[in-house]
Amino acid sequence: MKLKSHSLFPTIETLFLLLFISFSLQAAQDGKKISSDLFGLFFEDINYSADGGLYAEMVQNRSFEYNPTERREWNPFSYWEYIAPGFSYGRISVETASPIHLNNPHYMVLDIEHIGHEAKYTGISGVGIKNFGFDGMVVKAGDKYNFSMFVRQISKEPVSFTISLQTPKGKMLAETKLVTSSSDWKQYTASLAPIASNDTANLVVLATSEGKVALDMISLFPEKTFKNRPNGLNAHLAQLLADMKPRFIRFPGGCLAHGDGLGNMYRWKNTIGPIEQRKEQRNIWGYHQTTGLGYYEFFQFCEDIGAKPLPVLPAAVSCQNSGGTWQIGGVGQKALPLNEMQDYIQEVLDLIEWANGPVTSVWGAKRAAAGHPAPFHLQYIGIGNEDKITPEFEERFKMIFNVVKVKHPEITVVGTVGPSPDGDDFTKGWKLADDLKIPIVDEHYYTSPEWFISHQNRYDSYKRNATEVYLGEYASWGNKLRNAISEAAYMTSLERNGDVVRMASYAPLFAKKNFTQWKTDMIFFDNVNVSLTPNYFVQKMFSANQGDYYFDKVISKDEKDINQAVSCVKDSKTGDIILKMVNFGNTPKSMKINLSRFGSIVSQAEQIVLTSNADAENTLDNPQRVVPVTSTVKIHKSFEYVAPAMSLTVIRVKTK
Ligand code: AHR
Fold first, then answer.
1. 585: Cβ below 6 Å to ligand 1?
2. What is the separation, in whole angstroms, between the first and last Cα of the chain?
């Protein structure tokens, strides 16, 4: 039987209409879909963030590669001292004739001419070297430390060594012995177990028999690194990042990525493989990069904490401030010659293969050989870091972008639009993004708290369904509570605009006491203590409480008061509703919350409040002045919340 059009059975058109209505109703209930990668981390080796910081190596200048181009007073012996206790004598020299690897050219030759009587304190005589670490080494009684060094025995006879940890006054904390057994470079390893704790210990490598040896890659790691990874990360600092539950980590910088001149660009291939074969180099921030924390370690760390890796590769041009030319308007950008671009583009493609390719591919095999046969699931690649948008930049960026787009449509490229929130490079960068349809571009700005408060509508008017934004570097100038709260207000606007802002990361991340090049940072540390800034707590409160749907009009506040900012997101994995209330004003502000659209809710909710005096800040001496307070509160479908002056509140509500 043929159905008539007015029968009780719906037509195809009616079915589609019903489906559309039901999708729309669902969407309204679910709110606006926003990025699920919104808040992440920016890591750059600035302020001794890597060597001497997150990277757990305790020996400074382990490979004798320090040199005066990094710092005028530095040389291959920096942070080492020659010692010959017990009336011993000998000689040391730096040589390059037969290194472990050409990438690691310098090593030390120890010629032990005479072993004398026993030394007064340690009871040992010998000839050797002592390392001071990064302002001393922190060792703990009960913990173990993994020592290793490469030795090439030059004399016919084997050479005996005592390896020890000592206090600055020479008191023995831990000791082990080894004897050389090869005239080729060979790695020797040992474990040291201190009998007492000390915050300024030294590592002593003492030859106790006569002979001649070449030494290199003298290394000491705590056994307890983050997740106990070999060549791993400082467990405490890494845990602070893991606690933030970042959705991504951008690395290796910053200016460090595009480098101080072409020879200083960060080339990822130099940073993988056995550490003694990696290419070390001058750090643009005025010190040394061992590259021991290299691409493998970055990717592994991302995987360990469930963050997506976001490597940023140079766009084949160096930093415009190369040679310090920021003083004269940043005219120092250098571009790779065009006849080198083919190889350079291949380097970018090789990274994708290294991260995601099968173990049977050339670069996938190298990843597997390093201990990770499974792919790293690379999704994003940054090309360029706040570069000056010159014709040379544009030409090279296009070449790289076009090839990646064709060969790897599964990879999302992040472009760059200069170092400021507006201006010439910003305009040119966005024009290029529009022309090339770059999926995402990286915006950077460091400015005043007032700017953040008054620009909360910045992204409301950005074009939708076009190039998205990665706010890759931002911070207000300062680490007082008022700085952090201005950033919190701004972050509610990033959530509101999470359909166009794909990612955001505060910068810089770490700063080591007395080794700081950038004043405003998220985490300050020395060898013993850590000071978490209010900015860290704000970042953590947002990052650990992200959602993937945004809801308007759940929280009502005085719309005319720009010192108040609010947002409501839902995490569809847990079903939790997350409310954020910011008050940048100096009096408490009442806000009304209506959760009726969310169905049944659990009345016990988790509340975190960060508040104090506007000028309060944490220091290494007093790290507890501004800390968030977590409690369980009783809430209703509709309730009032009074946001304290200068505060951020997060309330996490469970749904039934
Ligand atoms: O975050 C510190 C520096 O600021 C970055 O290296 C650079 O990209 C920006 O200018």
1. no
2. 48
Spatial contact of 384 and 265, defined as CB atoms under 8 Å apart: no
Instruction: Give Cβ neighbours of residue 427 (< 8 Å, ≥ 6 apart).
Output: none
Ligand 1 in contact with 253 (CB < 6 A)? yes
Q: Which two tokens stand for residue 558?
A: 């005085």
* Per-residue pLDDT band at 124 (split at 50, 70, 90): confident
**Which residue, by CA, sits nearest to atom 8 of ligand 1?**
254
Query: Can 386 be counted among the known catalytic residues?
Result: yes
Determine the angle formed by the axes of helices 534-543 and 481-496, rounding to 10 degrees: 20
Alpha-carbon distance values, 111 to 82, 213, 366, 598 (Å): 12, 7, 38, 76
Output the pLDDT for position 119: 75
Pocket of ligand 1 contains residue 425 by CB under 6 Å: no
CB of 473 closer than 6 angstroms to any ligand 1 atom = yes
The catalytically annotated residue of 57, 386, 392, 487 is 386
pLDDT at 10: 54
All domains in the chain, ordered by first residue: 41-55+233-546 (3.20.20.80), 80-222 (2.60.120.260), 552-653 (2.60.40.1180)
Nearest-angstrom CA–CA distance, 105 and 281: 12
In tens, the pLDDT along 317-352 reads 999 999 999 999 999 999 999 999 999 999 999 999
Report yes or no on whether pTM surpasses 0.85.
yes
